[in-house]
Amino acid sequence: MQEKWKELQVILEEMKTIKKREYFLMLAVCVLSGLVVGMLVSPRKQVMVGSNNGNNNRSSKGGCGECDCEEGDYDWED
Question: Which of 18, 49, 77, 78 qualifies as a cystine partner to 22, CB 3.0-4.6 A?
Fold first, then answer.
């Protein structure tokens, strides 16, 4: 075990140069993978958009499935 630790230390001591583009790509991959892992590990699994405060407003276009106009009856000219 100590031999492997010494080998790892030798590898880490070597200096390497990387381009700014490679550094940015590595940083972006780490951040995005951290976000994905955090979403998968988090205890909250359901997302609700809105406040769910009982507001039952409906639009005029078929909220209840009924329509006052007949098929082909339009307000504009053809």
Answer: 18
